[in-house]
């Protein structure tokens, strides 16, 4: 077993395909496949299950990859401590729902660990993909919310994938609207106030169940619905169409602009926003730093939005 083989299997797990892993590693796909099969034979386990749909990490593979990442992390520490230049790129990935504080913390992470050679990923993506990314170790951390409506379903999926959910904070329901929207000046709004305005939400692809919605009160009937994929589009439509979206109320003016405001929503319910990690994987130094950065931005901003 070599460090190179460990880098091979972790890269395959992160990318989900042999072809993409080979491209990233600058090796041929047959050479990569051979190296992984030799490692599986040496260890006496199957790390990846080969199916008609591609490859998936096996149950034994999940445990093995947890140890492999720890070995690579320790090797990186040795290189940084004893080499004049650290060998290899620093790598880190986060999958998250659309939260500005997740971006703020990611910026801090790159400033702290980036240096001259790194490969970091921040995926603002769909709820199911966040769980899948962490389960298959494409991302070390996931960020999403639970509430009374989706908790049972999502907790079941989280547990089935051997993941853990840790609460960062719980927030009261708010809406985001343009500063030009008549509702922007209100101390709070009701669902009745929102009836005539377009409702914007993030679409969830093939997993477009209410349970995977990024917005609470997803089952409420609305006459005008618009679904989008990214945060910039949603905010542009909030301004251009005088629309609204339901959110945690945590907003960053530097990232989202001064023309978007949060207004409390008078509805019973809350958002328990937290992080997903893999149960069998010890967090790296970068993941620990990132979580602390998240807590810093949460404590600095929008304290009035929090329940705890």
UniProtKB/TrEMBL annotation:
| Keywords associated with the record | DNA-binding, Transcription, Transcription regulation
Q: Where is the HTH lysR-type domain?
A: 1-58
State the PROSITE patterns in the record.
HTH_LYSR
InterPro entries the UniProt entry points to: LysR_HTH_N, LysR_subst-bd, WH-like_DNA-bd_sf, WH_DNA-bd_sf
- What GO terms are given for molecular function? DNA binding; DNA-binding transcription factor activity
Entry annotated with the keyword ATP-binding: no
* GO CC aspect terms: protein-DNA complex
Similarity comment: Belongs to the LysR transcriptional regulatory family.
Q: What is this protein called?
A: LysR family transcriptional regulator
**Lineage, please?**
Bacteria, Bacillati, Bacillota, Clostridia, Lachnospirales
């Amino acid at each position: 077993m070599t460090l190179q083989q460990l880098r091979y299997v972790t890269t395959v797990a992160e990318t989900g395909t042999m072809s993409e892993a080979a491209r990233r590693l600058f090796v041929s796909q047959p050479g990569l496949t051979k190296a992984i099969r030799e490692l599986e034979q040496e260890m006496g386990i199957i790390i990846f299950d080969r199916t008609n749909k591609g490859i998936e990490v096996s149950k034994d593979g999940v445990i093995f990859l947890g140890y492999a990442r720890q070995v690579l992390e320790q090797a990186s520490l040795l290189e940084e401590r004893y080499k004049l230049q650290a060998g290899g790129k620093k790598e880190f990935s986060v999958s998250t729902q659309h939260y500005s504080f997740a971006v703020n913390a990611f910026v801090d992470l790159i400033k702290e660990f980036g240096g001259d050679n790194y490969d970091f990923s921040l995926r603002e993506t769909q709820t199911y993909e966040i769980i899948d990314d962490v389960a298959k170790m494409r991302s070390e951390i996931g960020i999403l919310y639970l509430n009374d409506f989706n908790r049972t379903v999502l907790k079941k999926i989280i547990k089935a994938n051997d993941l853990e959910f840790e609460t960062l904070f719980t927030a009261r329901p708010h809406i985001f609207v343009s500063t030009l929207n008549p509702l922007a000046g209100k101390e709070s709004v009701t669902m009745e106030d929102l009836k005539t305005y377009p409702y914007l939400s993030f679409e969830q692809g093939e997993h477009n169940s209410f349970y995977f919605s990024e917005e609470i009160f997803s089952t409420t009937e609305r006459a005008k619905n618009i679904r989008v994929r990214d945060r910039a589009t949603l905010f542009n439509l909030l301004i251009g169409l005088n629309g609204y979206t339901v959110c945690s109320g945590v907003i960053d003016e530097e990232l989202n602009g001064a023309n978007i405001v949060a207004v409390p929503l008078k509805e019973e319910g809350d958002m328990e926003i937290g992080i997903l990690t893999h149960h069998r994987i010890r967090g790296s130094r970068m993941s620990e730093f990132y979580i602390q950065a998240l807590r810093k931005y949460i404590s600095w901003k929008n304290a009035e939005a929090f329940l705890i």
